[in-house]
Design goal:
The chain is an alpha+beta fold and about 400 residues long. It has two domains: about 1-190 and about 330-380, 3-Layer(bba) Sandwich (FAD/NAD(P)-binding domain); about 195-320, no CATH class. The chain has helices at about 10-20, 35-40, 55-60, 65-75, 75-85, 105-120, 170-180, 235-240, 240-245, 260-270, 275-280, 285-295, 300, 305-310, 365-380; strands at about 1-5, 25-30, 50, 90, 95-100, 125, 130-135, 135-140, 145-150, 155, 185-190, 195, 210-215, 220-225, 230-235, 250-255, 315, 320, 330-335, 350-355. The strands form five sheets. A seven-stranded antiparallel sheet has the order 17-16-13-14-15-12-18.
């Protein structure tokens, strides 16, 4: 059986790996000149492959049952085993995140996987842009011509809409819509937040709020926040994206001293000769002091009780998320109502989908990559197709 896979990201590579293990002929196609560019870019800031937390906690990070089912079938332990199988050893970091052993670069992980695929018979074709498809064929534009290729089964792993320079440009959306395949609109996820500061920010850009707790409504996240020329970045911001999209009128609240209760904060302020010295005494960062002085009224800053309240709960009105192309990932994608439980399209049963082009969302910290690979595993399996 001949399998055609469009895309060369981790979801695509896992789907192809599963088909190879079943003895099928596998060919990959990509419109870029090289494979898995987003996979490589994502590794620049620390190559977090997955997370070590218990399965129940892990699954709670995802926003829909369908992607949870995929991760249940191919969980973090299965991913660690797979990486070891292709020659990549891993370790658990201090926060529970899982990385390749120190000194291993993202390109080395990718090459280990590609080498295994090629050794087992997979072939790769680059600069092939998909123009159209039907149940068993794909029309490609190459550098020299348009070609139609036929397959027994097809897998699309076309990515979301973030970081378009890596190839994840969501140009497939209009093609799918033209075939009456329902698409949940793509939106920024794991993105920075736009916030209009009340005073000049230039001297504070790049400063970090360390060891804070951010919240929107009842959802909160401990971590760090980086000040930028447009607002905020960082894991403690990204994890609130979904809650913000659902409740855009709610403020972003920051506890600048979560290790202390309100009384401890107030006592520290009272013991200082003035409020600015009190902030320094409790070891608030320059960024935290800047935010307080910038965003609260002078009368509030000078009032001990009011200032203490703001330190524990600084409320800020967010204007929007950063554009999709700046986001780490996107939410939305092909609606689950369009697919059977084996990830095949109801309108095109020989075609399966996987990765970020599906309608699911997750925070950073290994959860995005884990779910992408898990969906590729499910797309590459031969489990029976039954309607959702």
């Amino acid at each position: 059986m001949k399998i055609g896979i469009v895309g060369t990201g981790p979801a695509a590579l896992m789907a192809g790996s599963q088909y190879l293990l079943q003895g099928f002929e596998v060919s990959f196609y990509d419109h870029k000149k090289a494979p898995a560019r987003k996979f490589l870019v994502a590794g620049h800031g620390g190559f977090n492959l997955t997370h070590s937390e218990p399965k129940s906690d892990f699954l709670a990070r995802y926003d829909c049952d369908e992607i949870k089912k995929c991760v249940s079938e191919f969980d973090n332990e299965a991913l660690i085993s797979w990486l070891k199988f292709i020659g990549i050893e891993t370790f658990i970091g201090s926060t529970g995140k899982i990385f390749p052993i120190k000194g291993t670069k993202p390109i080395e992980v990718l090459n280990a996987w590609l080498n295994w695929l090629k050794k087992n018979g997979a072939d790769f074709h680059f600069e092939h842009k998909m123009l159209d498809f039907d149940s068993n064929s794909i029309l490609f534009q190459t550098n020299s011509s348009k070609i139609t290729l036929n397959f027994d089964k097809i897998v699309f792993a076309l990515g979301g809409g973030s970081w378009s320079k890596t190839g994840s440009d969501a140009t497939w959306v209009e093609l799918f819509k033209s075939k009456n395949i329902a698409i949940v609109p793509l939106q920024s996820s794991n993105a920075g937040m736009n916030f209009r500061f009340h005073s000049a920010l230039e001297k504070m850009e790049g400063e970090i709020l360390k060891n804070v707790v951010t919240s929107i409504g009842d959802f909160q996240k401990a971590g760090e926040v980086t000040l930028t020329n447009y607002g905020f970045e960082g894991a403690a911001i990204y994890h609130l994206n979904r809650t913000y999209r659902e409740n855009p009128d709610l403020p972003l609240c920051i506890d600048l001293k979560p290790q202390w209760n309100l009384k401890q904060v107030l006592d520290c302020l009272k013991s200082a000769k003035n409020n600015t010295e009190g902030l320094k005494k409790m070891k608030l960062s320059k960024a935290a002091i800047f935010l307080l002085k910038s965003e609260i009224e002078k009368e509030t800053f000078l009032n001990l009780e009011s200032l203490a309240q703001k330190i524990k709960n600084l409320s800020l009105k967010i204007e929007s998320l950063r554009p999709m192309d700046e986001a780490i990932s996107t939410s939305g994608g092909v609606s689950w109502t369009e697919m059977e439980n084996d990830l095949s399209l109801k309108k095109f049963p020989n075609i399966k989908l996987c990765g970020e082009m599906l309608d699911w969302d997750a925070p950073t910290g290994g959860y995005l990559l884990q779910a992408s690979i898990a969906s590729g595993f499910c797309a590459g399996s031969t489990r029976e197709s039954n309607s959702n």
